[in-house]
Automatic annotation (TrEMBL):
<dbReference type="Pfam" id="PF07336">
    <property type="entry name" value="ABATE"/>
</dbReference>
<dbReference type="Pfam" id="PF11706">
    <property type="entry name" value="zf-CGNR"/>
</dbReference>
<dbReference type="InterPro" id="IPR023286">
    <property type="entry name" value="ABATE_dom_sf"/>
</dbReference>
<feature type="domain" description="Zinc finger CGNR">
    <location>
        <begin position="132"/>
        <end position="175"/>
    </location>
</feature>
<dbReference type="InterPro" id="IPR021005">
    <property type="entry name" value="Znf_CGNR"/>
</dbReference>
<protein>
    <submittedName>
        <fullName>RNA-binding Zn ribbon-like protein</fullName>
    </submittedName>
</protein>
<dbReference type="InterPro" id="IPR010852">
    <property type="entry name" value="ABATE"/>
</dbReference>
C-alpha cells in the first residue's frame, strides 16, 4: 500500500500511517525500511535517512503520541500528559539543516532530526487555536486532517482516499435498494 500525504501536516501524515485505528488496524510502517521510504517521500524532510531498530521504535512511539494529542484536540479534551511530554521532548532535539540550491530546497539530516522536525510541526499545529482539525467522515478511515478549506466544509481526508469511496458505496446501496423494490413489484 502506498503512503498518502493528504492530512495537511507531516505530523498528521505520520499519525495516519496507521489506517483504520478503531477497527482492524493496518500499519503501513511494519519495518525500518518503510519509515525510510515514508521520510523520503514526505515534503520538507531529508531525502535519505537510514533507520535502525531503536530509531524505528522511537518513531512509532512518536507517531502514537502525535495521534493521541491530535485526537485530544479533535475531541476538545486536555492533552494526555505522557504523549505531551513525548512530543515536546522530541521537538526539542536538533533539526535538519536547510539549504537553498538552484534545484530548490535541500534538507539534510539524520532520521532523529527528521523526527524532531515532525514533532515540532505537531507542536506548532496543535498550539494553533485557528487550526481546524477534523477526523475523516469515512468511519473506517480514522485519519485526522487539517481543514484549510474556506468555511471549513471539508468532510474527507481526501477525495481519492475516502470521499469517492463513500459516494460510490452510497450509489451502490441506492441501486441495490431500487433493484429490491423492483423484485417485490409495484404492490409488494
Ligand atoms: Zn479518510
Amino acid at each position: 500500500m502506498n503512503f498518502v500525504f493528504v492530512s495537511g501536516d507531516p505530523a498528521l501524515d505520520l499519525a495516519a500511517t496507521v489506517l483504520s485505528r478503531r477497527g482492524e488496524r493496518i500499519d503501513l510502517l511494519s519495518e525500518p525500511a518503510d519509515l525510510e521510504r515514508w521520510t523520503s517521500l514526505c515534503d520538507g524532510l531529508p531525502d535519505r535517512v537510514s533507520a535502525d531498530s531503536a530509531t524505528f521504535e522511537s518513531a512509532l512511539s512518536l507517531r502514537e503520541a502525535i495521534y493521541r494529542l491530535a485526537l485530544d484536540r479533535v475531541l476538545e479534551r486536555p492533552f494526555e500528559p505522557e504523549s505531551l511530554k513525548a512530543v515536546n521532548d522530541t521537538a526539542a532535539g536538533p533539526l535538519p539543516s536547510v539549504e537553498l540550491t538552484d534545484a530548490g530546497l535541500r534538507v539534510s539530516g539524520d532520521l532523529t532530526s527528521a523526527l524532531s522536525l515532525v514533532a515540532r510541526s505537531a507542536v506548532l499545529l496543535l498550539a494553533d487555536p485557528g487550526a481546524r482539525l477534523k477526523e475523516c467522515g469515512r468511519v473506517d478511515c480514522t485519519r485526522i486532517y487539517l481543514d484549510r478549506s474556506r468555511g471549513a466544509r471539508r468532510t474527507w481526508c481526501g477525495m481519492d482516499e475516502c470521499g469517492n469511496r463513500v459516494k460510490a458505496a452510497a450509489y451502490r446501496a441506492r441501486r441495490r435498494a431500487s433493484a429490491a423494490d423492483g423484485e417485490r413489484g409495484p404492490n409488494g
